[in-house]
């Protein structure tokens, strides 16, 4: 499970990450990353507790509710395993595409890892 300090909750945080961050598409995921250390505007959050924060977007295009919740649980588990590898000032939004419903978890991990590496969030 992904601990509370590592989650994005507010709409403004999701919007800021999607609009101001960098994006890369993979077969089953779209990864948005906003590194607050690199952000030049003064609109960083006032208080940051914990490390990197993750937000998930799993729309109805992925499947019915049971499938969407299963995909979200698998993505949260994957994000929990990546918290130590990401910088503390990173916000990551993961948008699941319809193929994520059938993709195995290790494939989702590989796609997320490669997307984060290409965006410069991982070394």
From TrEMBL:
Gene Ontology MF annotations: 3'-tRNA processing endoribonuclease activity; ribonuclease P activity; tRNA binding
Keyword presence, NADP: no
UniProt superkingdom: Bacteria
Keyword tRNA processing assigned: yes
Enzyme class: hydrolase
SUPFAM superfamilies reported for this sequence: Ribosomal protein S5 domain 2-like (SSF54211)
Keyword terms, alphabetized: Endonuclease, Hydrolase, Nuclease, RNA-binding, tRNA processing
Transmembrane segments: none
EC code(s) of this entry: 3.1.26.5
Catalytic reaction equation(s): Endonucleolytic cleavage of RNA, removing 5'-extranucleotides from tRNA precursor
Pfam (any one): Ribonuclease_P
Signal peptide (residue range): none
Biological processes annotated in GO: tRNA 5'-leader removal
Gene Ontology cellular component terms for the protein in this record: ribonuclease P complex
Family: Belongs to the RnpA family.
Functional description taken from the UniProt entry: RNaseP catalyzes the removal of the 5'-leader sequence from pre-tRNA to produce the mature 5'-terminus. It can also cleave other RNA substrates such as 4.5S RNA. The protein component plays an auxiliary but essential role in vivo by binding to the 5'-leader sequence and broadening the substrate specificity of the ribozyme.
UniProt subunit comment: Consists of a catalytic RNA component (M1 or rnpB) and a protein subunit.
Name of this chain's protein: Ribonuclease P protein component
Source organism: Nocardia aurantiaca
Gene: rnpA
